[in-house]
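Please produce the structure of this protein holding adenosine-5'-diphosphate.
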Amino acid sequence: MRKKQFKAESKKLLDMMINSIYTHKEIFLRELISNASDATDKLYFKSLTDGSIDASELKIRIELDKDARIIRIIDSGIGMTAEELESNLGTIARSDSLSFKKENENDENLENIEVIGQFGVGFYSSFMVSDRVEVVSKALGADTANKWTSEGVDGYTVEPCEKVERGTVVTLHIKEDNENEDYSKYLEQYEIQSLVKKYSDYIRYPIVMDVTTTMPNPENEGETVTETHEETLNSRLPLWRKNRNEIKEEEYNEFYKQKFYDYSDPLLVIHSKTEGQATFDALMFVPENAPFDFYSKDFEKGLQLYSNGVLIMDKCADLLPDYFSFVRGLVDSADLSLNISREMLQHDRQLRIIAKAIDKKIKSELAKMLKNDREKYEKFFKVFGNQLKWGVYSDYGANKDGLKDLLLFKSSNGGYVTLKEYRDRMADSQDTIYYACGDSEEKIALLPQCEAVKERGLETLYFTDDVDEFAIQMLIEYDGKHFSNILKDEFDLSTDTEKEELNKKNEASKELLDKMKEILGDKVTAVKLTNKLGSHAVSLAAEGFMSVEMAKVLSQMPGADNEIKAQLVLEINSEHAVLDKLKGADDETLKKYTNIIYNQARLIAGLSVENPTQLADMICEMM
Ligand code: ADP
Ligand code: MG
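Below is the modeled complex.
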């Protein structure tokens, strides 16, 4: 019998296939099972209009022969004639399954089946693990069977052979192990069981295999007995394909916990069917807690990607924006081809459309939760709110508009507020949104400036996360209102007359204030009297763009070798008795007083004291 050559371009393709298209050799099993499922689907499709076809007990069988190093994948599908073996397996990148779908495009029965293949390369993945592949097939209605044999690039043969039942048997002769690759593992029953679970769990036909279990002998202690049973390896039930109203909450929860190894039920389930530019099902979950490795550099975001129920990728990062990296779940689309590598996926237009739709969906579901279940949303926000704030800040604010209404901040009114809620209850006279930064709500509430703002009946947002002020800077404004840091020097609530009065006081104390500035040197840019500290004596306010909090955050960033400093103004309450003390002090005492109040102001602002011992000594001396 003459060996036939693969078509020239096929040869090159085959070589490429075997060596580079797939990242994981293990996917050969998924490809062969998908083909068996397609062939079974095609038969089932025919049986719908032809009563003479026996389409009962359709299943896919896997057989392992460890000693002979053989894996068989057996189906009772439509089969292939000798010509079909030639054309389908002899030409790489020729998919009969794709033509089948095209030919029957307008047949309404096609909705009942789910043909997976469309690329015409999957079959050749078997050469990644086999040094010889035989395909014995008997087509529906044919009297004879044929055998296709190949050892890879060299070519293939087709010859008649014996086979009684309709369908196809693919026999893989598994390669010997070498130092780089352990091929023998594919001959282990456990490995096959887990590969089927991983990639082909939702194939709609049963995938069966004889499974041998060893257990203690109940009659004879210390002895074991082995039993072999045919078992169905796949669960066959893609939950996401069912209608939402047919699925109970517990089903979602169990599915989530099992699939994503979580102990807690998810906080939010998002199940959607999308049709239009892209057709896909998505089933996504917002966990109750951050995964244990969420903040480590090993954490990988992404959704599982399925093509018609067959897993293509475990963590498709391109499907999720960074600010939703906590979302777990999967996307199943018939528009994607199985045989696609990570690199190719990145440029896939279809995938980008899906990613966009998913982003929108998650946002709208979170917005719904915020509106309908505030308590739950606050629970969510405590765990993952930071991600959303970083989302506003990163990429130069490209995503801020979609995220700003999902943000929550603590405020002086108690509890969390959205920017919209703050905006809606702003006083008519108030033209900016007030905020203050600090380590904790409690500490911020105690700041002199905060007390003063509160006394006027105004609300302040409390920024306690490093990212808060950066995110707000990126927002620039909310509904036409800008943001003001009440800890900044320029922040001023006083009336024109109050301002004028203060100016006069500053003029009158100029000599004293200049002296104090001289004492402090470049630690501060100015020393001023102020009327915004309520009953408190002193504070430090930042001047210019950089706030005290931002300087702190930036200094702590990896790679910042110099401490970044805000420009500070020492503010003294113009009404406070301490002013008289300062005025009455001689030069030597003024030096001490100035240093003491400067350091006190640092402490109030949440900054460290440069020389605590010296400060303590000075205070004791005064006492
Ligand atoms: P694809 O599945 O993308 O079409 P493959 O390389 O996996 O590409 O398979 C090529 C073609 O070979 C299929 O389209 C199908 O026509 C045929 N084929 C492969 N396996 C079987 C099988 N088990 N039964 C019948 N036909 C098969
Ligand atoms: Mg295929």
